[in-house]
Amino acid sequence: MIKLELSPKLYHYFVRPKWFTEKYIENRLRFILADYNFTNKSILDFGCGIGSNSIMFNPKDYLGVDYDKKRINYAKKMFYPYKFNSFDGINLPVSSNSIDYIIIIAVLHHINKDDITNYLNEFRRVLKPTGEIIIIEPCFFKDSQLSNFAMKFLDKGRFIRSKEEYVKIFKDDTWQIKSLNRFKKCIVYNEIFFSVALN
């Protein structure tokens, strides 16, 4: 099977154009994250892609990481002075106990359960004892079959899960679920927002 990937530039202009990011992503994220105080808090944006989420945070506190080096290089050009580093898939380029918040936005539905479990060990290593992970992911809901079908058709992620499946991955790894909400994005997308902390 041939896997076609858009270049970071094409992705930026056709999948995540500025108007779309502002209207459907930034505004929603600002609303969801309004209860959090990120002032002088270290932020790790896991799976940052082309860096679109960076502008919601202070450059001195933010680090975006992604496995795709091309997207990281693009993010460095587009969102200077924000910091971005590539991630080898095993070790996060971050010191132990140094991060207040890990932000994961629309990433886990591209990752199988075993790999997520491995990443959780790294998250545990880099988070401060009082740190949290904030997660926003596409989610299947039992009462929303039409949206579920649309997401399967439209989304490239092979691992969109139900709310229960997302929660179980973290609970089985002894993380504490602190908050959990569902919402709709772009009419057809159901998404889940939840945060977890070290037990």
Automatic annotation (TrEMBL):
<keyword id="KW-0808">Transferase</keyword>
<keyword id="KW-0489">Methyltransferase</keyword>
<feature type="domain" description="Methyltransferase">
    <location>
        <begin position="43"/>
        <end position="131"/>
    </location>
</feature>
<dbReference type="InterPro" id="IPR041698">
    <property type="entry name" value="Methyltransf_25"/>
</dbReference>
<dbReference type="Pfam" id="PF13649">
    <property type="entry name" value="Methyltransf_25"/>
</dbReference>
<dbReference type="InterPro" id="IPR029063">
    <property type="entry name" value="SAM-dependent_MTases_sf"/>
</dbReference>
<protein>
    <submittedName>
        <fullName>Class I SAM-dependent methyltransferase</fullName>
    </submittedName>
</protein>
<dbReference type="GO" id="GO:0008168">
    <property type="term" value="F:methyltransferase activity"/>
</dbReference>
<dbReference type="GO" id="GO:0032259">
    <property type="term" value="P:methylation"/>
</dbReference>
